[in-house]
Amino acid sequence: MHTVLSFGALNHTKTFRPLIIGCRQARLEAPDKPGSEVTVSAENSFVSFPPTLAAAEEVLAAFEARWDARFPMIGRKWRTNRANLTPFFDYPLEIRKVKYTTNAIEALNAQLRKVTGKRGSFPNPEAVRKVLYLAIIKASERWTRPVQDWPAALNHLAIVIPGRLPA
């Protein structure tokens, strides 16, 4: 069983999440399929895995040296938002991995879009609520895998935000 924790308890979550999603959307500026590994390389190497901000800067510089001639907007978008992304490096790697993961959110959003897209219109707001509620219930039945590295992240969260986690 997972401990329910809002990442709003961490200071920079409200500014960080939209920035990461915006930077991830930079892949739309890399239109050809053979370059799809470019975005994954940029996301994983710059945001999640370097242990320090200095190491992340080096990785981003290497990424730009390799790919800027072909995809200049990806590196530029990360550089533009760099100042707002730096607080993310204040947290340990275990917290960053859990906080950065958006796959579960994106999967749920896809399910919700799927059920609402099938219908042309809804007779009233209550009908929309019912359809979305049932879609969330159905999607939650498939959530059987635990969050990767959650115990380690939970231990670090107990250190970073003491007194906010249930015993």
pLDDT < 50 runs, ≥5 residues: 1-9, 11-19
Tell me the overall shape.
Answer: flat
| N-to-C series of helices and strands | HHHHHHHHH
Q: Describe the main β-sheet briefly.
A: none
The end-to-end distance, rounded to whole angstroms, is 14 Å
Q: What is the overall number of helices?
A: 9
| Cα Rg | 19 Å
Beta-strand percentage range: under 5%
Compact overview of the structure:
Helices cover 62% and strands 0% of the residues. Helix 3 (53-67) packs antiparallel against helix 4 and helix 6 packs across helix 9.
Q: Keyphrases for this structure?
A:
disordered N terminus; mainly alpha; 167 residues
Provide the fold topology:
Elements lengths: L12 H12 L11 H13 L4 H15 L4 H9 L1 H4 L7 H8 L2 H15 L7 H16 L9 H11 L7
Helix pairs in contact: 2-3, 3-4, 6-9, 7-8
